[in-house]
Structures
1.
Amino acid sequence: MIPILIPAEFDIFAKTYKIKMYENLVLARNAEGRTRFRTCQINLQKMTGSDYPRLEVERVYLHELAHVILHEIGRADLGEDEQFIELFSNAFHQVLSSGRGGEITKTFSAAAGRKRQ
Ligand SMILES: [Zn+2]
C-alpha cells in the first residue's frame, strides 16, 4: 500500500488551503477531520501508533479534500451528502494507495517533449 501524501498546504484555483494536525480535535469537535472554507484550512486529528492510524488519517484527509474540491468548483450541494463524500473519498483512497508497477511516466521519458492528448 502506497502512503498518500498529506501536504502542509495545497493550491486550488486562486486559494491555498493549509492542513493542520491537532491532538484533541475528536474531543473538542467530535470529528477526526474538519474543513473551514472561510479560512481555507483542513484540521485533522493527530493519530500515532500502528499503520492503521496512518490509513485513517489519509482517509479523513481525502474525505475533507473531497469537501474542499466540491466547494471550490461550486458544487457544495454535493458536499452535503456525507454518504457520497465517504464513498467517493474511500474509492479515491483505494485507487491512490493501491498503485502498482512503478511510476509509469518514467517509462515515457522519450516522449517527454510531446504534447499531451
Ligand atoms: Zn464530511
2.
Amino acid sequence: MNDLKVSNDTSAYEVPAALDAQGRLTGACVRQALTMMDTHGLVILTDLLSDAEADIGLELIRQTIANPDRSQCSFASETDNRYVRRDFCSLPSTPAVTRFAATMCQRLEDVISEYCGRSRPLLEVATFTSYLGSSHQYIHRDPSGVISLFAAVEDVSDEQGGTVFVPGTHAYGGSDNAHGGQASALMELFRTQCNWRILVHNLKKLWSMRRDDATPLAPGEFWDRLFSRKWDQHQPNLLRFMLGKNSQFSLRNLGPRMLWKLYRHRKALSELFPLVQTAPRKGSVILYRSDLLHAGPDNRSPVPRQIFGMSIARDIIDTKYWHDGYSPHPSLMAQPLSFGDLLDHPALPATSSVLNHRLSA
Ligand SMILES: [Fe+2]
C-alpha cells in the first residue's frame, strides 16, 4: 500500500528449521525461535514442512473450500466472505486434518510448550483464502492468551497479501514500561494512524473497482461494503466507522486532540513501530503471539492466497470469548482436542526431505 511504509524484509524474524532424529526442532533452533517469539512476538520457521507435506495441507484446504456445506468463520470480514473476496472457513476434525495439525505440533513441541501446557485447548483449525478485490484488514490484535500458527502450503507473494505484523507490539508483564512508560498509548496512536490510512486505501480501492473488469462488483456489493449495518470489522464500512461501531477504528475519535497527538508523536511512531509484510515460501510456518499487532492485507494478484492456520490457548478460556475470536469447526466443538492430544496423535510419515533435514541436523 502506498500510504503505509511496509518492509518486505523478514530476515530478522526467520529461523531455518533443522530437525533432530525424532523429527523435532533441534535445541539450537528452539532457542532461536523462543528468543524471537519473546523479543518480536513472532518467528518464521522456514522449510518446516517438506514440499510433499505442504501439498497434503493444500489438498485439505482445497477439499474444504470445494464443500458447499463448509463452515465459514464469523470473526473476520463477513461481507468479504459473502461476495467471495475472502473465504475463511474452519477445517473439520477428520483424521487427515488432525494428522496434519499434529505433525506441526510435534515438530514445534519445544517451542509451543514454552507457552501452552498439554491440557490447553485447540481453539481452531482453519484456512484463510483471499481473492482479488478483498479489503485490507485493519491493524488489530487477536484475543490475548493464544499462540497462533500460519503454514504456507504454497509460495505466497507480496502481491497476494501475506500477513503484515508490527514486531515488538505484543504484551507481557511490564511491557507498558517501554518507551518511557508510554508504550500502550503510542501503540494505540500508531494503530489509529495505520487504520486511517487503510480506510482511505479500502475506499479508493472499492471506488476504482466500479470500473475495473478484473474485479467486477456483484449487484449490491458496493453499497453493502460501504453502508452495511451487518457486523464486519474489516470493510471500508463508513456507516459503522461513523457510528463508532467498529472496535478497530472510529472516525468519531479522530478529533483535533487526536490529530494533534498524531502530529506531535509522528517521528516516534515511524521510528518505534516497523510494519513488516511476510511473504512465506512453501513449507514455512509462522508462529505468533495472538496479541501482536497485525493485519491480513488485500490480495492484489489474480492468484488466490491460501493459508492453513491453527490456534492453541495458553490458559483456560471462556467459551464465549473463544467463539467470539475463533471459529472452531462443529466437529471440534463436539470432540474437543488439546495440545497434548495433538502431541499423542499419529503424525504424517516422514518424507525424504524431512529425512534430509534430520541428517543435516
Ligand atoms: Fe487477526
